[in-house]
Amino acid sequence: MTPALTIGSALLYMWALIQSLPFAAAYFGGSYIKAIVWAAVAMAAILIAGAAAARRLGPKSFLLLLVAASLAVRLGWVLWIDTPPVSDFKDMYDAAVRGAGGDFSFAGNEYFSRWAYLVGFTLYETVVVKLFGASVLVLKLLNAVFGAATAVVVYRIGKACFNAYCGRIAALLYAFYLPNIMMCSVLTNQHLSTLLFTLGCGLLATGRLRSRFGWLWIGLLFAAGQIIRPLGAFYVVAAVVYGLVWLVRRPENARRTVLLARLAGLAVVYFVVLQLVGQLLIGAGIARYPLAAQEPYWKFMVGLNRETTGGWSQADTDYALSFPLGSVRDEAELTLLRERLRTVELKSLLWDKARLLWGADDASAYWSLYQTKQAQLQADFNRAERAFYLAMAAFGVIGALALLRRRAEERGYALFALLLVGYAAIHLVIEIQTRYRLDMMPAFVLLQSFGIYTVHQWMQTARQHIPNWRHSPWKKSRSL
């Protein structure tokens, strides 16, 4: 299964590379050559940054610089860009302000009845507002902290799964990837949930399932992530699949039994915590429904909307709201879903959805700069994002192909290949938005970091065969 996963991730990176090129060219006057040139410049900049970080800084110095720099750039962004809450972000923030005043009646309105899983993140915002006042700036500053913390976690995972070089370059790319920075000024639940899910995956990938209580912490982190953003079930399934494949290949029967029990315990902890939290909130009168979507067919129905290429649809929203919430609305949505399965050209739709999700420019510039004084800078930031996304996709192809020589189960990075491939597969049939790529960015940068390391090693080998190549940034790195 591991070679198949690695090949699958290689194909995904290649798909992202090919499909993002025309979108990138649109920001360079329609010129594919200019897009490729700027992507090459981005690749060179990444290689130089990686070599410099490897040569010049010890482990402690690097971590300090990583935290300081990633925090500084995010703090600078949220202080410069005054993004007002809009759309769902505004609904959750307004509800949090009411909740801080003791009014939780919002949980019974149409919005939170449909998307009851958003109550968890809204309550997080409620606590922040209660402690610090109704200022969006504090929430944005916390986003910056979560982003910087995730970069540190990515570093730890990359170092454990590959080597220190990969850990450093993956952390740097995560810390300075423009959409990660720009979205800090947006009150999205992605910042905190990504940190929690990445922590859980890091524990799993680095072998903590072998420890006595590692399974407990992984289950708790996935449950906490689910309370903030409804992706927990995806991570639990990925963890179980990864664990089963890993365990089946182990010869020690006794040890296998223990690890299987811990894997089951992980899933049990996840589901029990969610049930307990949901019932406690309902009992306290804070929530009206369990923390789960009350329209199970919505994302599938929208995901097969040909007119929006699987994106959010106002027409679908109006259609759903014309029926009362519950079994009647479920049946109406299921009816439309079945109709689309019969009438829509699925191959064409799925192709276009995959092309948009993995190839189109990230929507972070829109969400961050919308209704601000800097709105005119969207094209400039998109141009930079396109160049670096192309570069990372190219390194991803190299890294995934290079990983075919290694035993992924032993090093843990098969988990991240599984996450990428699984995430891509699921979004073929459910609603898509390009900002959803940010949920998988830790896995995306971790796997492609091995491609950067591979090219770095090629450069080292070339240096040894070229006399008089002195003072090069590719000079052999000292021990990390």
Q: Looking at the structure, what is the overall shape?
A: globular
Number of domains: 1
How are helices and strands ordered from N to C?
Answer: HHHHHHHHHHHHHHHHHHHHHH
What is the total tally of β strands?
A: 0
Helix tally equals 22
Mean pLDDT: 91
C-alpha end-to-end distance:
32 Å
Biggest sheet overview: none
Q: Low-confidence stretches at least 5 residues in length (pLDDT < 50)?
A: 476-480
Which band does the percent of strand residues land in?
Answer: under 5%
User: How much helical structure, as a percent, in the residues?
Assistant: over 70%
Assign the structural class, choosing from mainly alpha, mainly beta, alpha/beta, alpha+beta, or little secondary structure: mainly alpha
Rg (CA only): 23 Å
Keywords:
mainly alpha; 22 helices; 72% helix; 0% strand; globular; disordered C terminus; membrane; glycosyltransferase
SSE inventory with pairings:
Layout: H1 2-25, H2 32-56, H3 59-80, H4 87-100, H5 110-114, H6 119-132, H7 136-161, H8 164-176, H9 178-182, H10 190-205, H11 214-228, H12 232-248, H13 253-283, H14 298-303, H15 314-321, H16 327-343, H17 346-359, H18 364-369, H19 378-403, H20 408-411, H21 414-426, H22 441-464
Helix pairs in contact: 1-2, 1-17, 1-19, 1-21, 2-8, 2-19, 2-22, 3-7, 3-8, 4-6, 7-8, 7-10, 8-22, 10-11, 11-12, 11-13, 12-13, 12-21, 19-22, 21-22
Concise structural overview:
It comes from Cohnella nanjingensis. By secondary structure, this protein is mainly α.
